[in-house]
Structures are given as structure tokens and as C-alpha cells.
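C-alpha cells for chain A. Residues wanted.
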């Protein structure tokens, strides 16, 4: 078992009774000791004492430095147990299987159409969610609504800021977000057969993006399976931390300058890759730069925070309710209700949302394994 086994958290807190909490504590008894003492201190306190730059970079690449030590230990324990892997077909293989199961059970997927509003009606002492309105004006009525979308967009956009309390507003005002990324994707007419698929490059010559110094590049080389690129060619993704303010200021205030900055960043990255992979610049066939504004444009994640809340020691153990004050028949899922995010936690949040629907309906929740 890893340091934190998500499957053991089998119910959302809202419907846990005393016995449920006691049973869960017993299941997690071997992990509970890691949620106190030195293990809850920020990882940066540990890495600040490490003198070797490569060892320090290794730890800082696991989780954000603001995260607790136990989160880094959880990543390492998951890896050591063989529960973390590179998928030969990429993440699309997971998405494809989920979509297949959903449609097999009668679900209907609608893509290419954004939601504009949640339909609500007054029902007794509280309002009730009745469906959604799409951006094209189509109204879809439903018994329940589950939003796995961006939290801010759901609360202030789809719901118009009508179902808030002081806890929610304080959370969105004071909690810090995961720093957004710039991702430079390269299509290279070259094979990288003997290169590790994941790598970190510490730059001897940093470069600047806005007010930020970029001194570390995180590489992902898609050389571990066929299908990511045509034969004899490889996709490389290079990412680094950046700030939201720099990119949104350019995107909304000076679009030509925004495009110019993207081109400059790509050249800076390629110039540094050339030192490690000679001739790569001449072998490029495709260059694509995604900024925090790109992330927001495609996902509406607040300020391009691709994993939601920054998992500080205080935030990551916070229980965020999956329902909203004054509104029934709507539940929340995704990384905005599971600080730290990640695929296992977000999948679990979806299961919890369905459990809440079943509980609200007075129906038993049964997990059908495919």
C-alpha cells in the first residue's frame, strides 16, 4: 500500500456517520502518523537544507515546494510500488475507456458546446438546480447537475455568485493557486531512443519571462511508445513555471506582443536544448507554445491554475463541501474540491458526487467494476 491509498476514502464526508469515520480511520491507520509533526512541514524547509543542487532539484520536481513533506513521500511511495507509469497510448487511453463505460451505461457525451448557465428554480426554503443552458441557447433539463468545471467559473459564472457564504468567498480570496505553466511542444525529425522520457535541465544561463527567472526546464520525451509521432520522429514537451499576470496583460492588452513573446520563449528554450541535443534546432518540424492564457482559454481554470489550489500543508487537508449553501440538486467535483488535484483524487471526487446523488435519492450506491 502507498502512503495514501485513495481507494480507502470510500465516502464523501457529508454522508459519513460516526461508524464510517471510525472505519476509515482504521483503514488509514498506517498512514495517519504522516499527517503530523515534521511530515506536515513545507517541502521547502527540507530542500532549503540540501546543498547538492541536483538532489534539491529532484525533490522540487516531485511536488510544489510549498506542499507538505508527506505529499512528496506519497509520490515516491506510489512510484516504488509500481502504481505510477507512463501510458503507451497516453492519457487518451484513460479518457477513452471512461467515455466508453459512460456511453455503454446509457450516457450521452456532448462536446464542442460550452455551458453558459445553471438553470435554478425556487423550491421550498432553498433553490434547486434543474439543468443547464448551453452557450448556443439550448436548454438541457436534468434531475441533478454535477459540475467538474472550474470552481470560480461555476460559482460566479454559471451560478451568478448567488450561492456563496463567507467560507467560500474567503477561500477564493485568500487561498493560493498552483503556479501556471508555459509548455513548449516540439516535433523533432529525430529519434531519442536512449534518452530518459522524463528529465530536468538546470540552466547555467537562465532567461527571463516577465519578472520571473527561468532556471529549470522540465522535459518529457515521448519516446517510450509508438503513436505519439510518425516513424523516426519524436514529440518533446518542455515546461516551466511562470506567472499569470505577465501573460494575461499581453493577451488582453497587446496581442501582437503576446505572439512575439511566445516566439521569443520558444527560441530561448530551443537554444538551451541545443546544448544537450546538438542539431535539434535544424530538425524541428513543429513548434507550439501554450501559455497560462491558453490553459484558461481551453479549460477556464482560474488564472491558468491547471491543478487548482496550491497544496500547502493547511489547504491540502481541508475538506471542501461538494454542495453549495442555498442550492440543492447540484454537486461539485474535480480538483477545486480536492486540493492537490491529480487523476486519482479527481476520479474519486466524481464517485463521491454520484454517491451524494444516491444518498439524496435514498438509493444504495453500488460500484460496478468494468
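Reply:
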Amino acid at each position: 500500500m502507498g502512503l495514501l491509498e485513495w481507494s480507502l476514502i470510500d465516502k464523501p464526508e457529508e454522508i459519513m456517520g460516526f461508524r464510517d469515520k471510525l472505519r476509515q480511520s482504521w483503514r488509514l491507520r498506517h498512514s495517519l502518523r504522516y499527517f503530523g509533526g515534521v511530515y506536515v512541514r513545507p517541502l521547502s524547509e527540507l530542500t532549503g537544507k540540501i546543498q547538492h543542487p541536483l538532489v534539491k532539484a529532484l525533490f522540487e520536481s516531485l511536488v510544489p515546494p510549498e506542499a507538505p513533506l508527506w505529499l512528496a513521500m506519497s509520490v515516491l511511495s506510489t512510484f516504488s510500488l509500481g502504481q505510477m507509469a507512463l501510458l503507451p497510448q497516453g492519457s487518451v487511453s484513460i479518457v477513452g475507456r471512461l467515455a466508453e463505460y459512460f456511453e455503454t451505461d446509457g450516457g450521452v457525451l456532448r462536446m464542442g458546446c460550452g455551458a453558459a448557465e445553471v438553470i435554478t428554480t425556487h423550491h421550498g426554503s432553498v433553490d434547486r438546480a434543474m439543468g443547464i443552458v448551453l452557450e448556443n441557447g439550448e436548454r438541457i433539463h436534468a434531475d441533478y447537475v454535477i459540475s467538474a468545471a472550474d470552481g470560480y467559473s461555476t460559482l460566479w459564472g454559471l451560478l451568478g455568485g448567488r450561492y456563496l457564504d463567507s467560507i467560500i468567498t474567503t477561500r477564493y480570496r485568500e487561498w493560493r493557486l498552483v503556479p501556471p505553466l508555459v509548455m513548449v511542444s516540439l516535433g523533432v525529425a529525430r529519434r531519442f531512443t536512449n534518452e530518459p522520457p522524463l528529465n530536468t535541465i538546470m540552466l547555467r544561463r537562465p532567461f527571463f519571462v516577465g519578472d520571473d527567472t527561468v532556471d529549470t526546464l522540465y522535459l518529457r520525451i515521448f519516446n517510450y511508445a509508438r503513436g505519439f509521432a510518425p516513424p523516426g520522429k519524436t514529440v518533446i514537451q518542455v515546461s516551466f513555471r511562470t506567472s499569470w499576470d505577465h501573460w494575461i496583460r499581453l493577451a488582453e492588452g497587446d496581442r501582437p506582443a503576446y505572439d512575439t513573446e511566445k516566439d521569443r520563449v520558444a527560441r530561448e528554450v530551443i537554444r538551451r536544448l541545443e546544448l544537450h541535443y546538438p542539431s535539434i534546432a535544424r530538425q524541428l518540424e513543429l513548434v507550439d507554445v501554450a501559455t497560462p492564457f491558453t490553459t484558461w482559454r481551453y479549460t477556464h481554470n482560474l488564472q491558468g491554475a491547471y491543478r487548482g489550489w496550491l497544496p500547502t500543508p493547511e489547504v491540502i487537508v481541508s475538506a471542501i463541501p461538494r454542495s453549495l449553501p442555498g442550492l440543492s440538486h447540484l454537486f461539485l467535483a474535480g480538483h477545486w474540491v480536492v486540493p492537490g488535484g491529480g487523476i486519482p483524487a479527481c476520479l474519486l471526487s466524481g464517485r463521491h458526487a454520484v454517491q451524494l446523488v444516491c444518498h439524496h435519492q435514498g438509493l444504495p450506491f453500488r460500484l460496478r467494476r468494468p
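The chain has a mean pLDDT of 91. The chain is about 35% helix and 20% strand.
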